[in-house]
Design brief:
This protein has about 160 residues and is of the alpha+beta class. It has two domains: about 35 residues, N-terminal domain of TfIIb (Single Sheet), CATH 2.20.25; about 120 residues, K homology (KH) domain (GMP Synthetase, Chain A, domain 3, 2-Layer Sandwich). Helix content is about 25%, strand content about 30%. The protein contains two helices and seven strands; from the N terminus they run E-E-E-H-E-E-H-E-E. Strands 4-5-6-7 form a four-stranded mixed β-sheet, with helices on one face. The radius of gyration is 17 Å and the shape is globular. The two termini are about 30 Å apart.
């Protein structure tokens, strides 16, 4: 028996509605004129999956985030199939107690160990991770700090 199910309903043109097992709907547009395209949704899903993990990991580290945003970029193979060849996830994390070491560890753990979406993607896709930490009352600014990862090496908890 499957543990995840959904349904796709064609609405004409290249527009679809995704409906999950709980009835939540997602608009999808293959022309990305009225909704995100399937490829954009995959990029967003990868980031959202990692973001959920980062929020949970930081809370367990007793350095909770008060806000989290991400900027996402991806490159695709130039010819079909147009799979992702590179993905960049840049985290902006607001927290008054977070250190760069804890932020890097949370980001690294989220992607390498816990993010089921990332771990479903092609193993040859290049992943770039970075973060910035901001005080809770600050605006986002400054340079992103890269997070070094080696997916083949795994990660300790």
């Amino acid at each position: 028996m499957s543990d995840t199910t959904a349904r796709i309903i064609w609405n004409g043109d290249l527009k679809f509605t995704g409906v999950n097992a709980d009835g939540f709907e997602t608009a999808i547009d293959g022309d990305h004129k009225s909704a995100a395209s399937p490829v954009e949704l995959l990029l967003e899903s990868t980031a959202a999956c990692s973001a959920v993990d980062v929020v949970l990991i930081l809370a367990k580290m007793r350095t909770p985030a008060t806000r989290l945003e991400m900027d996402l970029e991806a490159d695709r193979n130039p010819t079909p199939p147009r799979f992702f060849t590179r993905m960049r996830l840049a985290f902006d994390i607001w927290s008054d107690d977070l250190t760069p070491d804890k932020a890097a560890r949370a980001v690294r753990l989220s992607v390498i160990k816990y993010c089921s979406v990332y771990n479903t993607l092609r193993p040859d896709m290049k992943l770039e991770l970075a973060f910035r930490i901001h005080r809770s009352d600050a605006t986002a600014s400054g340079d992103y700090e890269p997070v070094q990862i080696d997916p083949a090496a795994g990660i300790e908890e």
